[in-house]
């Protein structure tokens, strides 16, 4: 196959490209320029989207022996990821920009351009596995968790459709990260020991609240307890997320002296409600904007769901009603915010995902 290798400048995408070449594919490396102003993004060898990464990706392509290009996708990234991030926080929700980037940029815009140029698909360094099986309508490409659960990235790929999965190649899903780094060193790739990235690439210093304040300006409002009594004030509700404990700067301590957590964010009035940890517990979720890796479930599905990028799996029953996904959790989960993704699993297989719109709370005894 003719493949585009999406090369971030990190070790994973470099080894994935090299393995695709070893497998006999005709591979062309591509690095995505995502910032309209590169100085506004973080610098340093952070493993994704930094200023130095294009050079690291180019050097890796030279070692592998493949053609290399830089694609400017800064407009698409600003429209689909950065602007969406701002809009979601403004609406009192907590988005996942990396998941959005996978959906709209790496596996939509890139794949669309690749196919238009005559390529068959895209190879990336994501830790996930693809398994081909027989479905009711023919061959189905299933998305599964990686063997290394500590590096598994199937959660942020749960937005991919069957058409996108059929044109995707994930060569790293069967190996732990340690072996990938060792292989990179053997291949002479300078990125073998480059650190992974954990921050949002377009927020250079990692200060989400400060970045949002600069974009949105002060929007003061009250912090109240569950009775409605004002216990503090803030300069912008966008600086908070459900489950947050630190940085609340409450002027009135809780009667029992225990820490308080953000329970709710009301974006219109700017009211942030805080309360005890046990009041964060939820046992039901309503999801919207579902995306299915194949066909949606028919009837109640006994499954597990993952509610954060590096969170635990929760036993659940999922029911789909058109564009609404209802999730009943067998055991309560805490700190779950609207805007996050609920990714549905059947064993290790990803069924699909939905954006969390509402949650129902269970107060622990």
Automatic annotation (TrEMBL):
InterPro entries: MnmA-like, MnmA-like_C, MnmA-like_central, MnmA-like_central_sf, Rossmann-like_a/b/a_fold
EC number: 2.8.1.13
Site residues (Interaction with tRNA), renumbered to this chain: 126, 340
A Gene Ontology term for the protein's cellular component: cytoplasm
Active site per the UniProt annotation: 101 (nucleophile), 201 (cysteine persulfide intermediate)
Residue span of region Interaction with tRNA: 151-153
Family assignment from sequence similarity: Belongs to the MnmA/TRMU family.
Function: Catalyzes the 2-thiolation of uridine at the wobble position (U34) of tRNA, leading to the formation of s(2)U34.
PANTHER family linked: MITOCHONDRIAL TRNA-SPECIFIC 2-THIOURIDYLASE 1, TRNA 5-METHYLAMINOMETHYL-2-THIOURIDYLATE -METHYLTRANSFERASE
Annotated HAMAP family: tRNA_thiouridyl_MnmA
Stated name of the protein: tRNA-specific 2-thiouridylase MnmA
Species of origin: Aeromicrobium choanae
